[in-house]
Amino acid sequence: MKSIAIASLKGGVGKTTTAANLGAALARRQRGGVLLVDLDPRNQLGMHVGLAADCAGLAEASVRGVRWERVLQRSLDDISCLPFGAPRDGLGGELDAIFACRATLLADGLAEPALQTHHVAVLDTPPWPSPLLDQALSLADIVIVVLMADAASFATLPAVRSLLRRRAASRAGDARAWLLMNCVDSTRLSRDVQALVAAQPELPLVEPAIHRDTGVPEAFALQRPVILASPTSQAADDFERVAAWAIEELAAESPARPAQASRGEANPITDVASAHEASR
Amino acid sequence: MKWLALSVRIVLAALAVVFLAVVVVTPLDVGPQLLLGGAAFALALVVRNRNFASTGPLLTMFSIVASSRYIWWRVSSTIDFDSTTDRILGLSLLGAELYAFAVLLLGAFQTLYVLQRKPAPLPADRAAWPTVDVFIPTYNEPLEVVRPTVLAALRIDWPADKLRVHLLDDGSRPAFRDFAGSVKVNYIIRAEHKHAKAGNLNHALKITDGELIVIFDSDHIATRSFLQLTVGWFLRDRRLGMLQTPHHFYNPDPIERNLGQFRRVPNEGELFYSYLQSGNDFWNATFFCGSCAIIRRSVLEEVGGIATDSLTEDALTSLRFQRLGYRTAYLNVRQAGGLATDTLAAHIGQRVRWAQGMCQILRVSNPLVGRGLSIGQRLCYLNASVHFLYGLPRLIFLLGPLAYLIFGAHICTAAPAMLLAYLLPHLVHAMLVDTHTRRRFRYAFWNNVYETVLAVYILVPTLIALLRPRAGVFKVTDKGQIAEGGFDRRIARPYLILLLFNVAGVALALMRLILWDYYDSGTVLLNLAWALFSIFSLGAVLAVACESRQLRRTHRLPMKLAAILRTESGHAYRTQTRDLSLGGASLQWSEPLPAGEKVELALQVGSDEHWLPARTVGSDEGRLRLAFDGLSVGQESDLVHTLFGRPDAWIDWEQGRPADRPLASLRTLTGQSVRGMRTALKAEPRVMGGALAAALAVAVCFLLSHTGWRLQPAFERASALGVMVSERLRSAADMP
Lengths: 280, 736
Fold this sequence. Notes:
The complex is a heterodimer.
Chain A: E1 2-7, H1 15-29, E2 34-38, H2 45-48, H3 58-64, E3 73-74, E4 80-82, H4 92-101, H5 105-110, H6 113-116, E5 120-124, H7 131-139, E6 142-148, H8 151-155, H9 157-170, E7 176-182, H10 188-199, H11 215-221, H12 226-229, H13 234-251, H14 268-279
Parallel strand pairs in A: 1-5, 1-6, 2-4, 2-5, 6-7
Antiparallel strand pairs in A: 3-4
Helix pairs in contact in A: 1-13, 13-14
Chain B: H1 2-25, H2 30-50, H3 55-77, H4 84-110, E1 132-138, H5 143-154, E2 163-169, H6 174-183, E3 186-188, H7 196-206, E4 212-215, E5 221-222, H8 226-230, H9 232-236, E6 240-244, H10 254-258, H11 270-282, E7 293-296, H12 297-302, H13 313-323, E8 327-330, E9 336-337, H14 344-364, H15 375-386, H16 391-405, H17 416-437, H18 446-467, E10 486-487, H19 489-516, H20 521-545, E11 546-547, E12 557-558, E13 562-567, E14 572-580, E15 584-588, E16 598-605, E17 608-620, E18 623-628, H21 633-644, H22 662-683, H23 685-706, H24 711-734
Parallel strand pairs in B: 1-2, 1-4, 2-3, 6-8
Antiparallel strand pairs in B: 4-7, 5-9, 6-7, 10-11, 12-14, 13-14, 13-16, 14-15, 15-18, 16-17, 17-18
């Protein structure tokens, strides 16, 4: 199973929204093969795909020593999701300790057989600083850092860079990371920030950006991903195209990790990507 | 060896010429002549269907031989007139035919080899790229026509420090000054307004200093690649003085619009810009057409600036370049789009000016005489000039059949069968050449329409220009008007009169056929067919004169672009444009959206996204129509760039056009011709009816007095017919 981590260093930029909608778009391209993993204690990822807010989740499972697959849920639209879980009595203090001490918690959890049947995991990461964020970053094949096209987001770029440098140092293989602009629109500010971000050399931009679109919050209100709630919207098209891009990137041979290619089993991601390539 | 091969070739060529000359001058009787014509036609068909490299020249040779043979026969055996009337009419017709023959020969020479010049690449080192002044002369065109031209010129890909755009406003209008200021282009006006456009350009020439000068008429919107595709030749060829590119029009001209054939048939200009200019280029005789061209400043200064002693100052200027030994070039890649004239009156006015100017050149700087020109250049320029003298010959052809049908004059003393045997090869081979070499640029029978429309109006001005070359007045062609719609009586009237005469001719032909000249039915039939063809041509002109209403101020271009529509509520929708204009767009659309709502439209071009404010106008059948509303200058520039700026904006313009099929053309034009006559009848019922009756009455009276002595046999024949019919009826009644 490959994984994509969605991160941000500033709240309110649409990180969770992006994780849910990108996950849904990926799921449509590989039915049943995508797992949404909510590592953010705010526990909102499930809500985006129509799951109840008060369910048990991977936090409680970790504390109680239960397997994660026991809390795996499926949305009405047939998307697999591991919620973080609602806050419950008696969980509080133990969580931090468990996440901090068990460095392979995430990797072990995702290695469970029922979860490994998925082809891609989309990890909605918690705000920095967090041991779970570090684990997600070092585990993920691809990291997408979500930015809004505004000054506050732009100001976090140096911090994003240093976070990703630390991640690169903690990983054996390559450390591919991209920036994704969210809520871009026709205003001068939005275009200028986009141009500035595109001009900085270190971090590449995901093409296309996600456009500002009332369809997205409306979809959240309906608790469905935007590609299903409002399929003709621009945001739906953007997420579809980012999903197509992600599939290609995941399938791309990463030179630093030749082991992946030699596993011998049919790789559905590669297949989809090559089919996509061929269809051009 | 080489010498041997060359001399063998020369001997063979000489033999061929002698042989063909013998073919041309040998007189034959009807039978052998028909046989010869048939054999030549069959051979030509084989050559055409094989379609090898020299098919064009071979077919041209067939055509020239057939036409020469016809003309030789006409001159040598058909001018033996009985009366002065016959002589005058007959010699007029012969003159018209000789003119047509001369133009045919010149045209064949001009297109002997059609050069397909390719763009020359620019050096990688930008320091070597020359500085360029872009001149956009304007006088009375509306600002909305000029704006996109200026905005597009500013976005031509060229080093910013080497590109200067100048707006040359001879109207000295404050709105233009403000606009120029807002987009930071150089605004040039002058105190006095001598010599119109030429004077305007010459004035700007004095106060600028770029190495190259690009001239765009105020409606010619350049693509971004204009300079990068064209300037290379100026670096490669230091003696190059001028390079011309095609004039392309993205809206229908009045003929295309009024006949409903926009983008289905090559328009009037296409033959010249897609074919003839490339032919000129081979002879180093490309001439300057006033716009979409690049000129080397040093050469222009050497000839004293743009010429001011012709209405077509452009062609005369390039002729002066040639006389000094500078080269000119033609690059047949459409790199700008412009507006065709909107009304038929303006269309005619513009062509009349060209015709007048080209005829002035015959007097002011006759290409046949004077220093510095090669024989090829002389003949190409000559053709460009004398080509515009077709006014009188056309009229003679239109009225020709009436000489016999009304006046009973025998203007060609030959048996009808003999005439056909000589005439048909001449016509058929000429058509064969046209449908082979020009089939993509001018469809069969359309030349007839284009020239007939102008014939009446071109006649007097060209003659005046020949007689008094300094008399002409420059008239600016109106662009950016809206055709009001309706029948243009003023323009149609002369053609209506010609039509009435031909209708009278047809009526007389029928009477002659039955009553008077039944013993000479061949001649009558020939003239009848000729008159019918004249009616066909004149009807088509009347159809052109029915101006169909033009509803839009801006012209929409079909264009599929990814687009985003954002409503006031903040919803953004993925969509695609169906067509786009400077005023609005129509989108693929299925959601309900009320009219009059404020929206934003983003056009996605590559990774660029151009956002434009707009209002919804209405929606139907899966499409939503928008009107742009309050564009900033920057947004307007983006829109112009998207619509007109792409290097390939006009490259495949003719794609999807049905191929030339002469019979289909004939059918289309016949339909249009009938429609034209019907409209004219409706528009001027009294004039038409009265004139028709009068013409018929006059013709009948004339005939009665002229051929009175033949009435006797006619009455006898009629009564014999009556007797025969009644006997038939009686015997039929007796049968059962």
